[in-house]
Amino acid sequence: MRFRRNLERIGEILGYELSKELQFDAKNITTPLGVASTSLIKNQPVLATILRAGLGMHQGLLNYFDQSESAYVSAYRKHSTPDEFEVFVEYMAAPRIDDKVLIISDPMLATGTSMALVYKALLKQGTPSKVIVVAAIATPEALELLKKKMPANTAYYIGAIDGELTAQSYIVPGIGDAGDLAYGEKC
Fold first, then answer.
1. pTM surpassing 0.85?
2. Which of 56, 61, 78, 110 could bond 15 through an S-S bridge, CB–CB 3.0 to 4.6 Å?
3. Helix, strand, or coil here: 68?
4. What letter does residue 46 receive in the DSSP assignment?
5. CATH class of the 2-182 domain in this structure
6. What ranges do the domains of the chain cover?
7. Sign of CA dihedral 50, 53, 57, 63
8. Are 128 and 99 in contact, with CB atoms under 8 Å apart?
9. E-assigned strands of the chain?
10. Rounded to the nearest 5°, which phi and psi values hold at 168?
11. pLDDT per residue as tens digits for the range 56-84
């Protein structure tokens, strides 16, 4: 539970920071005692996450963008050898994303391949006006790949950059398998 909650907190912090990039409209809100002027998000973003590891961060983002639609995409590694793997995307539940800000979260960006494939899969639901990638930890290699595979106007909100990627594509020091730490080991 502590690990899940910490991912949620990271999602909240990065959500607050990235909210500064969104467009707001001035609105007057009538309260029982008068009228208050405030700013509200002009167009709610679509929050997408990579299952299952991304669920904790997704909840943190949803705590800030509580009127947003959600998208869920599964992506997993299938190893052919200890050092070689392919990433598969098998399941997606997503709203239309045409002309919307798309925020995609995943706790760890080791190679960036899962994020790039998930973005490609989400394009079946339309073309977003802007993409924002949110992660707790990334490697320079992942960010380099994503700069080639994602739209030029993609923004990145990363908690930390770890400099080592092993031959098996694990982040060092990293945090371990985020999905297993949050929800238990998979068989």
1. yes
2. 61
3. coil
4. E
5. alpha beta
6. 2-182
7. positive
8. yes
9. 24-31, 34-41, 46-51, 69-81, 84-93, 101-105, 108-109, 130-138, 155-161, 164-165, 171-172
10. -90, 5
11. 899 999 999 999 999 999 887 776 776 67
